[in-house]
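Q: My collaborator sent me two sequences in one message, no labels, and asked for predicted structures for both. Can we handle them in order? The first one she listed is below.
A: Yes, handling them in the order given. First sequence, followed by its structure tokens:
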Amino acid sequence: MNTKKIAIAIDGPAGAGKSSISKVVANELGYLYIDTGAMYRGVTWAVLDSHVDVNNQKEVEALLPSLDLTLEPTASACKVYVKGQDVTDLIRQQQINENVSTIASYKGVREYLVERQQAMAAVGGVILDGRDIGSVVLPNAELKIYLTASVDARAKRRWLEVQGTSNEQPLEDIKKNVESRDEMDKNRDESPLVCVEDAIVVDSSNMTFDETVKHILHLVQERI
């Protein structure tokens, strides 16, 4: 059996299930999963925790050198550390959801994190997911996937995810948040969300989680 390890880039809009699907695929393949979204969330948490104005790009970028942002891969995902503090659970709060697209639109933030992502991916046998992996972070990835789903499907999934947690919200609010993040991600100046020409589009609106995983594993097998 050919055990060539490739780099896989998975892009797509907010709530398409990129992270949870990438984790399972990475596990199945014995690959390293690099949660780039969690890295942007980590920076957002640090900005809010330092009481820096989210809308002040200069101040946000000035904070970056002191963050010491690191990822520690675990069996189920990635732990995120900022200045040695484990912030893995803290970065899932609603306040982070509302501000992460703004932070991610800043050029300095993207450069800071892309450099880290490329260094982590250089070894091969990795899956990265985000908005600009195929276009900016790993333009030479052997397999590029654009994972998407309708706004309604994505909002419903997120709504089900937060039921019974402290982040619970009405479905209508979640739908608005998904739509506004799409708008921001597609229209920002720095590395907007795009479906690159050589990406394979996977629309999971009518697929179950397991069906989507199976389909992506099949695409990987074809590529190796």
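Q: And the one she listed second?
A: Here it is, processed independently of the first:
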Amino acid sequence: MRFKKIYIENYKNLKDFEIVFDEEEFMDIFVGRNGSGKSNLIEAIVKIFRNIYGGKESPQSNFNYKISYEIEGKATIIEWRDGLFYIDESRTGKKQIGNVTLPENVIVYYSGHNETVVNAVKDSEESFRKKIKTGSSSSGVEFAPVVEPR
């Protein structure tokens, strides 16, 4: 999966926040002063994918967002606006995604001191470790935290 663009309307200090990713680069690194929103962006991405994979167990997102990404050459745009999904600019009228190409895993590498990011991915960490050990696949996204202690 390759992110193309993320828009976050209002999550913590991310207000009308948009980031466009360079399609030529393999890796994106976020550098900034304390309080600039780096950790909040990671948290928001975790919340976005939990919302997308949702189901009845996952809480709905309390902020509007729009995310576009590409998987194996297939571009997808998912928007959550006012409690409903829009897929590739069309309103689904639903609170669940349906049949859309989604990533199996999201890898989070975080080298900060904020426990909020660690806690945001904690729920999926053990499940991801088991998946790697057994070589099995599962439905839903799993977050594999790679956290560098300070």
